[in-house]
TrEMBL record:
Organism, scientific name: Glacieibacterium arshaanense
InterPro entries, sorted: HTH_HxlR, WH-like_DNA-bd_sf, WH_DNA-bd_sf
Name this protein carries in UniProt: Transcriptional regulator
GO MF annotations, alphabetized: DNA binding
Domain HTH hxlR-type: 15-111, 171-262
Keyword Transcription: yes
Keywords: DNA-binding, Transcription, Transcription regulation
The keyword Cytoplasm appears for this protein: no
Stored Pfam families: HxlR
Length: 303
């Protein structure tokens, strides 16, 4: 990876992450999006999927207000409604796909077929541009001065010190991802780890997390197998490093769909091919791969 960002660049990146996480990174919100994508559109089905009724109603209103979900009548007498993903909600699917790829690779949890659309998940993350296997070390992080200049005044986040818990049987194919990405403080610590902010004091300065909460989250991330302590602070494990695609997918969604958001002042470039990096969770479609190979052969033959 490239040199670590400056403290101001790190702060700008965390502001952008925080704005996306405030909307998306909540256990119940993620569960609702996953259930809707899997075909559960009626309120009762969403509650049966593991989201408490009161929280389902609250989060659905939030998702409607944010433009990810639309409420539509499916019966007029009596009036009954169902919930559908909007284009913005459907654009969140690559985030879920990266979570499913990670779950299958590290937790041996097979995903629902409906979420895959007939495609096959990869074992490792790949570059969407060139199709080659990729990881965080193979992606260059380029900081843009214009983005840093646009950084708003320092924001102090308010986060819950306690975490929501859920029935262990709810969405077993996404359970570990919900534990990780349902905690906004944990996400900020992971982002810092990817930017090589590793020491306790540096993590506290970057995130503004109280010392006791930071200690709790670091212990939790170690228990989840994502971080390991070392001489220079806390390091990402292979399991933690492979979450990079989820974080990039969240950032990409937010940059395209959250209008009033401070964009992260960075550009990600896949070192191997030089293209802007986006993760790909699926193996190439065999028919598409065959057509591409045939086109290459024809081009060579015509030279």
């Amino acid at each position: 990876m490239s040199a670590p960002p400056s403290p101001r660049a790190t702060a700008a990146i965390l502001v952008a992450v925080r704005q996306a996480a405030d909307l998306l990174c909540d256990r119940w919100t993620l569960m609702l999006l996953a259930l809707l994508a899997n075909g559960a559109t009626r309120f009762a089905a969403l509650v049966d999927g593991g989201v408490p009724a009161r929280l389902a109603a609250l989060r659905l209103r939030t998702l409607e207000g944010a433009g990810l979900v639309v409420k539509l009548p499916y019966c007029l007498r009596p009036v009954r409604h169902e919930y559908r993903l909007t284009p913005a909600g459907e654009a969140f699917l690559p985030v879920l796909h990266e979570m499913l790829r990670w779950e299958a690779a590290h937790n041996a949890m097979p995903p629902p077929a409906a979420l895959l659309g007939g495609r096959t998940l990869r074992n490792v993350m790949a570059c969407a541009a060139c199709g080659a296997d990729a990881d965080a070390r193979g992606v260059a992080l380029q900081v843009t001065g214009r983005g840093i200049a646009a950084l708003p005044a320092k924001q102090r986040a308010t986060r819950r010190s306690t975490l929501d818990s859920a029935d262990g049987q709810a969405l077993p194919w996404l359970a570990a991802s919900l534990d990780i990405f349902g905690d906004k403080w944990g996400i900020e610590i992971l982002v810092c780890a990817f930017m090589r902010v590793r020491r306790f004091g540096a993590l506290r300065d970057a995130t503004g997390i109280a010392a006791n909460i930071l200690s709790n989250r670091l212990e939790r991330l170690q228990a989840l197998g994502l971080l390991t302590p070392g001489g220079e602070g806390y390091w990402l494990t292979p399991r933690g490093l492979d979450l990079y695609g989820v974080l990039v997918a969240i950032q990409n969604w937010a940059d395209h769909w959250l209008v009033a958001r401070t964009r992260a002042p960075i550009r990600l470039v896949h070192r191997s091919c030089g293209a802007a990096f986006l993760p790909s969770a699926f193996l190439p479609d065999p028919a598409v791969a065959h057509a591409s190979a045939l086109a290459v052969s024809v081009n060579h033959a015509m030279r």
